[in-house]
Specification:
This protein is α+β, with helices and mostly antiparallel strands and 376 residues long. The chain folds into 2 domains: 190 residues, no CATH class; 81 residues, Alpha-Beta Plaits (2-Layer Sandwich). Helices cover 41% and strands 17% of the residues. It has 14 helices and 13 strands. Helix 5 packs across helix 8, helix 6 packs across helix 8 and helix 7 crosses helix 8.
Amino acid sequence: MPAEVLSLLALNRALLDRQLLLRQRPPPADGARDAWVIETVEHLVGLQAQAPFPPYYGLWSRLAGFRPDDLAELITGRRVVRIALMRGTIHLVSARDCLMLRPLIQPVLDRGLSLGFGKQIAGVGTGEVAAAGRALVEDAPRTFSELGALLARRWPGRPPAALAQAVRALVPLVQVPPRAVWGAAGQSAHTSAESWLGRPLASSPPADQLVTRYLAAFGPAGVRDVQAWSGLTRLREVVDRLRPGLRTFRDEHGTELFDLPGAPRPDPATPAPARLVAEFDNLLLSHADRSRIISEQNRKRLFTRNGIFPGTVLLRGFAAGTWRIARSRGAAGLIIELFEPIAAPDRAAVASEGERLLAFAAPDAGAHDIRFAPAA
């Protein structure tokens, strides 16, 4: 029997639902806010965290009534951490996922080290660098600048930055507070995950779990999508092993898609509310074919800004513009730059969401202002 074909709208609504952007998750009736946030972070398989504060906005857009302290206290309490994971980029994940995901993603970091710094550290024993780096960061959290300078004493003539990046790839380094604590400031200082969490990394965790959790948060999806999200290769054999327990579909171009049997796939006609999602949000980064959330034309606009991935406006389910907050003299302004003109009701819906964002991000500002600017 031919596989069911899922339309672009069907894939869009499924993604939004699983990303908690179709309907936000309500606060817990029992008041257990820590579990509420951690369960969300784990459902999403982490939040992209290249900058310190996008995860706060990522959770705000998905959790009704989320407060900055809900996450800040988990960071200081060592229940969530920031560490290099999928695609070799920094993600905020639960302590439990940190210990499970890092061994699975290690090949991505090994490949990145070889491609980016292989020539600069050629002839240096990676095991020795890892051991020396681990000892240094476990003695005291170090910035990469500090770590590289200390390592260069042992390996003179080698670029300190390359030595520090070798440790980043070979040792699971977490960034310690006050970095990424809302309202605080601090440099990116690192120690090992094992030292910070007091537990070892998982031993040989199954790649199957990585795939099924991806599908729960981002599916239905193809093999290339899972690989684009994770940075791993050769996942076809993992998906084929899981195939008997998965549902299969096709998209409108004939690409084979996989999904968990009980995963939600809403009616494509389900209304999608206006949302403002975080900078670097995985919503827009986790598929090889991103047309389910952003058109190719708009993707090019979004990805040509000096490597900075801005906050994104979602309208009727798809990326429709960008947003940023500007502060001056005690006031906070939200600048919304749309890709194209929109109807008055849609504009009002985006502005309403903008007011909610400013109330979250700048509650003490003397004034809030929302400005719509044409695309550059």
